[in-house]
Structures are given as structure tokens and as C-alpha cells.
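dumping this here so i dont lose it
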């Protein structure tokens, strides 16, 4: 009788194990196609005149500081990139300054936005609603409380003027005009 119970119990376990095992089907499973997410690219038509190489100058500490800016579009079409380089200037800055400024349009706030950083530890974010005639009013505020405004005037497709005002956290105001000309 013990043998019969053991066999019956073993058969029951076998049936339970077989019924719990996954069933392998030769039918091919189909998955729904992913839903594409639209990526609206900014309309850079008002900014495209910038693409190319520019030479910029500004007065600084009694001298004229020069800078070369090269504007390009990123491969994904989401950003315009300004790669700038300025040679050593005087005894206060003895190394080249190299910077990158990325610009895009944020449709949620209806603002053009720039994100800037350089090899000397500088960084900043500015924004503008865009061109009002031939002028764009950019502004930003640093984490330390410094405020910056750039009133950029498009003189032509090959010339701009930037009235830059920086106010440090102690209230000291520095005004400078930056002139840029596009290289032919």
C-alpha cells in the first residue's frame, strides 16, 4: 500500500510540474509599433545670418580685445553653436579664452535661450523673445546675482553691435560695446 501511495503521490507531482511548466509556442509574437514622438525643431530662419566666421572686437582695460566666433548648426538641428576663441590679452589673462555658446528656441516659454561656458570657468544662461526689428534684447542672471544684458543690433547680415551691460552683486556696472563683422 505504501508503494501505491508513493507512486500516486509521484504521479500527482509529475502532473503538477508539467502543468506549471511554460508552454512554448511556435507562433510568432507581434509587438505594437512604437509611437513616434514628434521633435519640433526650432525655426532658425531669423538667426541663420549668423552661420559662418565672425571677427569681433571690444575695448577692455584700455586696449582692443579681439575674438573669432564660428557659428554652425548642430547635426540634430536643435542648436546653433558659437565656438569662440580669443588670444591672450594682457598681463591679467595670459592664456587663450575658448568658449562655446549653444542657442535654441524653447517653445514652452517662447524664448531663445543661450547656454555659455568657457575654459576659464565662466558660464551663463541668457534669453530673449527674439528680434524686434533689428534688435534683440538678451538678459540673464548668474547664480551669484550678477546680471547681464546684451542689446544686439543687426546692422546688416555681415555686421552686428552688442551693447553689453554687466552688474556685479555689489552693484558695480560695466558697459562695453562689442562690434562683430562676418568674414567673407
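and the seq i came up w/
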Amino acid at each position: 500500500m505504501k508503494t501505491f501511495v508513493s507512486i500516486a503521490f509521484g504521479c500527482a507531482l509529475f502532473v503538477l510540474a508539467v502543468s506549471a511548466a511554460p508552454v512554448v509556442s511556435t507562433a510568432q509574437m507581434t509587438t505594437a509599433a512604437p509611437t513616434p514622438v514628434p521633435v519640433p525643431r526650432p525655426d532658425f530662419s531669423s538667426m541663420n545670418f549668423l552661420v559662418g566666421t565672425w571677427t569681433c572686437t571690444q575695448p577692455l582695460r584700455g586696449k582692443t580685445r579681439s575674438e573669432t566666433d564660428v557659428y554652425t548648426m548642430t547635426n540634430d538641428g536643435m542648436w546653433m553653436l558659437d565656438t569662440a576663441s580669443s588670444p591672450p590679452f594682457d598681463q591679467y589673462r595670459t592664456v587663450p579664452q575658448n568658449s562655446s555658446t549653444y542657442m535654441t528656441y524653447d517653445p514652452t516659454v517662447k524664448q531663445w535661450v543661450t547656454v555659455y561656458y568657457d575654459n576659464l570657468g565662466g558660464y551663463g544662461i541668457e534669453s530673449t523673445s527674439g528680434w524686434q526689428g533689428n534688435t534683440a534684447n538678451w538678459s540673464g542672471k548668474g547664480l551669484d546675482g550678477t546680471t547681464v544684458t546684451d542689446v544686439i543690433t543687426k546692422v546688416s547680415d555681415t555686421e552686428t553691435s552688442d551693447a553689453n551691460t554687466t552688474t556685479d552683486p555689489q552693484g558695480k556696472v560695466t558697459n562695453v560695446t562689442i562690434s562683430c563683422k562676418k568674414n567673407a
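The helical segments are 2-20.
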